[in-house]
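Troubleshooting: if your tokenizer reports a length mismatch, compare your output against this known-good record of 325 residues.
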Amino acid sequence: MSELHKFIFEGLPVRGMLVRLTEGWQEVLARRRVAGGYPPEVQDLLGQMLAAGVLMQGNIKFNGALVLQIFGDGPLKLAVAEVQSDLSFRATATFGPAGASAVPAGASLSQMVNVDNQGRCAITLDPKDRLPGQQPYQGVVPLFGDRHEKLDKLSEVLEHYMLQSEQLDTCLVLAANGEVAAGLLIQRLPVMGQGNLAGQLDRDANEDQIGRSEDYQRIAMLAATLKPQELLSLGADEILHRLFWQESLTRYEPLRPRFACTCSRQRVSGMLRSLGSAEVEQILAEQGRVEVGCEFCGVLYHFDAVDAAQIFTEGSKPPAPGGVH
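Known-good structure output:
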């Protein structure tokens, strides 16, 4: 069963999370196989993105969708992982004109989306209770480091993002295959309440800061020894014991991430309404019906001429009192 484990290191300014996505991740892949499936390299990237997305959503407790996107100038045009506040998730990928077959066997992240250094990683926070006119928060970072070297691991990209955007030291280990998508996050907690006192208090604060940094570095080094195959094959208890058996951990009740798609016939109707009646009527004339497939879950929505007429008739009705249509 998919699980997200949260824990803290007692007496240290360090927190951690461990996620294992099993049946939900397998359902993501099973739904895609109807359309031919993903190349192994893309499959592994999507799995790592989902694991990272669940870790990040679980870390910030955000009431809305966290959307992680990787896009660029390679054969893989866009990879998306979306995680809601209840830890339900979905993912998809789209390719260039040559299709999925253009992804080279054994391709790295750069070879898939960052051929000419145009690759980007975007993290979007879209509030569930967003006000009219309010824009989602989005942070975008290139797929290269401070020295403009290409980053070929998603974990490196996200570590760099967290340090640059959030000023948080973070260690990430991510892995995925056709059965499991998993991740381990170790993060140094921000120091709270340090004043700007002079003299001895300043020296004490600096020494305390150095000690906190050393604590984090020690634990991050232990986490970095975790091999991808161990992350995929071992249970949470065994992983945490192997890595941190000398540390005192406080663990919380595990949470249960799951696959779920937010698509609906109503949302698709709204999308068709935004296209306009002329374009929908043209599709009906050419094909006899409008067919829209969800890129995330594969569900097909069909609209005949009667359905289409109803969409635009309902869209033209004035709102009832109280804003109810």
